[in-house]
User: Which sequence fits this backbone?
């Protein structure tokens, strides 16, 4: 036990998803209920047994609304975590905390959004609108033309290229690995759309040096997991994915706002994920060499590259060569985003990464890593971050 963390005390026992589409035709509450009920059915748990719900701080579905929709009669715990994509792994950690403290026994963790037909986070005005115009700090950057997340990550990409010699071809191999995995996943939006490196390089430039296929897919959909104690998990339908460790981190001198203030840091490429990784590995008693597969938050290709280094899978500056060598694909050193990830399966703010992390340790992924027993899942690196290590029971 490190700093009070109790490894393997809780487990994810059920996983569920809606379809991932461009136009769901459903409300976000209906999508959340669909994914949550699927997760409960997967676990073999009656919805009436749910006494805890954890959502995302950007979700438009309240915990009470979800409880009503699935037929949970009385929540003794409800909570939210974020900001945004930084939240999903922290949401599971919050569920673990609620169970360990005796505030709940069966917790549904969910994220639901109509991210293509409704609130589109990639639009220049969306960040402030989705957060109610709160402390995003966009007003300090908009006058200089920094209006959308893609522009922010393009600046980081160019900085990384200047520093390390990263090429567009190397960056393309991150997108290619995700696409090849999606091609084997019937649930992925890019299931039937193959891509070559030439396709990637010929895709239109959106915010130089980022091309179309460096971006995640704006998506309508929902994903959910059920968390309970490991003791109780032994009596349920599925083999549990034990939560070996969870961690959150801001790193030193965290900035306010959502992402743009990261550019004011002494080194904008120094992400909270490096500090989160230290806590996560210490709590798990494991290191990067123990990880069999990784579901890494990939809102953009550069986001994944930076985390490969922060979580210790390659040396600083070496992530591009690592990707180009095929190490992110099945058979490589670190099979990555084996469902297709945000770039080729769907962008559900990282909840679909947790679902796929569970599949890997269960042995049921459409791109199963042979003998996988340890799965890393990460959430967005700026402005704060969170991560999980899941292990087979």
Assistant:
């Amino acid at each position: 036990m490190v700093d009070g963390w109790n490894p393997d005390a809780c487990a994810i026992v059920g996983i569920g998803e809606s379809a991932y589409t461009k136009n769901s035709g459903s409300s976000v509450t209906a999508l959340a209920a669909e994914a949550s009920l699927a997760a409960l059915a997967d676990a073999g748990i009656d919805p009436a047994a749910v006494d805890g719900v954890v959502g995302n701080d950007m979700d438009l579905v309240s915990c009470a609304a979800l409880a009503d929709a699935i037929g949970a009669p009385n929540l003794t715990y409800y909570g939210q975590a974020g900001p945004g994509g930084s939240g999903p792994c922290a949401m599971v950690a919050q569920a673990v905390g609620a169970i360990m403290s005796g505030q709940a026994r069966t917790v549904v963790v969910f994220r639901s959004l109509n991210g293509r037909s409704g609130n589109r986070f990639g639009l220049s005005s969306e960040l402030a609108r989705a957060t109610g115009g709160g402390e995003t700090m966009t007003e300090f950057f908009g006058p200089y033309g920094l209006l959308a997340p893609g522009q922010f990550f393009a600046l980081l990409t160019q900085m990384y290229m200047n520093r390390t010699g990263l090429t567009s071809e190397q960056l393309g191999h991150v997108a290619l690995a995700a696409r090849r995995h999606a091609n084997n996943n019937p649930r992925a939006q890019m299931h039937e759309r193959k891509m070559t490196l030439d396709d990637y390089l010929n895709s239109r430039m959106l915010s130089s040096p980022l091309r179309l296929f460096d971006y995640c897919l704006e998506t309508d959909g929902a994903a959910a997991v059920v968390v309970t104690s490991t003791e109780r998990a032994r009596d349920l339908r599925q083999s549990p994915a034990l939560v070996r460790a969870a961690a959150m981190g801001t790193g030193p001198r965290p900035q306010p706002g959502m992402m743009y203030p990261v550019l004011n840091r002494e080194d904008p490429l120094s992400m909270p994920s490096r500090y989160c990784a230290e806590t996560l590995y210490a709590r798990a008693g494991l290191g990067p060499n123990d990880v069999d597969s990784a579901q890494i938050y990939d809102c953009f290709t550069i986001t994944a590259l930076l985390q490969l280094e922060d979580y210790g899978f390659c040396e600083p500056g070496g992530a591009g060569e690592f990707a180009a060598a095929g190490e992110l694909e099945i058979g490589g050193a670190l099979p990555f985003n084996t469902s297709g990830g945000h770039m080729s399966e769907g962008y559900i703010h990282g909840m679909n990464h947790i679902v796929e992390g569970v599949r890997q340790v269960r042995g049921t992924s459409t791109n199963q890593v042979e003998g996988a027993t340890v799965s890393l899942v990460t959430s967005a690196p700026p402005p704060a971050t969170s991560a999980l290590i899941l292990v087979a029971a």
Notes: Residues 28-43 form the longest helix (16 residues).
